[in-house]
Amino acid sequence: MKNNFYIISKTTQNFADYMSQTIRLSDQTPYTVKEVILGRKGKVSGKIATFLDKEGNVIEKAFNLKGKPLRNRIYTYKHGKIGNDEFVKSTEIEEYKLDRKIVDVYKKYQKKTEEEGIKTTLWVHEKTQTNHVAKHIPTDIINLTISRIQNLKNFKQEYLHSFTQYKPIVNNKISKNSPIKYIEYIVNDKFIALKSSIHTINMKRPKFDSFLGFRALSLEDFKIPITERFLSDRGIKHLGYKILPNYMPTDEKEITWKGLFCNGYIKFRRTWVPESKADFVSTSRHEVEHGWQYYLDARNGQDRGDNMLAIGENMGS
């Protein structure tokens, strides 16, 4: 059944002059705000606020419709070269939902959650869509791939991951020879893709890809679970090492490293921007290996920090 909303008014204003109490989740500071007031059956029934940066790119949309949960979409844009031959532009869209019955609770603790860097506390992460546009520099061939992650909202905490690869653009024309390719599969809370759920169109089923459950994740969402996977593979996840994916060094001498293992902490410098997931994987594996080596040292009584000393005493032979 259609909602039959109609537009009552549209406004555009500088964010500095915006006085609304609309809840925002994005860390980016908007430049302008476009607001649409919706009506239904002669009454105001909702509002959609669109926040844009100085270049006019949408960074967040907030949907507040009467009788429905609040919904916010966060937009993130990235671009850069992969190797020497490929230029990639990506747009990530994350959608969150907040039930109206806990809006007041969220507002009460909103300032605290912002300070702790967890603005999405109490919000349900509904889905993520990432649009990848890749241009092969030597040939000018353009490929579009869309990845999606959908929360299945079941007690098993499972998500549906999917990829759609569209026909390439060759010489400014859509290729007629290449079919659209598609794959979907269910991923559990341990980031394992369930083999029985894999469905493909115009492509082969992956048989030996043990990292399939990680491939649709954004780089930020990827950092902690992939590092935990490497810790598990190395047999040291039980040691309880803490992973800090956005660590900000306070010592100016530390600013050159990408990742660092220190006294039971695996730190990744916030200002380091990996060129790709593969770039992050290389650093993550390297620091996990340091964690393994320092664990062996601590077991043998070497001074690797207070936390490592305690681990060595508890886990030593």
Nutshell version of this structure?
Strands 1-2-3-4-5-6-7-8-9-12-13 form an eleven-stranded antiparallel β-sheet, with no helix packed on it. It has a three-stranded mixed β-sheet with strand order 14-16-15. It is globular. The protein starts with 5 loop residues before the first strand and ends with a helix.
Describe the 3D structure.
The protein is of the alpha+beta class. The chain has a domain at 218-317. It contains four helices and 16 strands. It has helices spanning 103-115, 219-233, 277-299, 306-315, and strands at residues 6-14, 32-40, 43-52, 58-65, 70-82, 86-98, 124-136, 141-151, 159-165, 169-170, 173-174, 181-187, 199-201, 242-247, 259-262, 265-269. The strands form three sheets. An eleven-stranded antiparallel beta sheet has the order 1-2-3-4-5-6-7-8-9-12-13, with no helix packed on it. Strands 14-16-15 form a three-stranded mixed beta sheet. The protein is globular and about 75 Å long. 19% of the residues are buried. The mean pLDDT is 91.
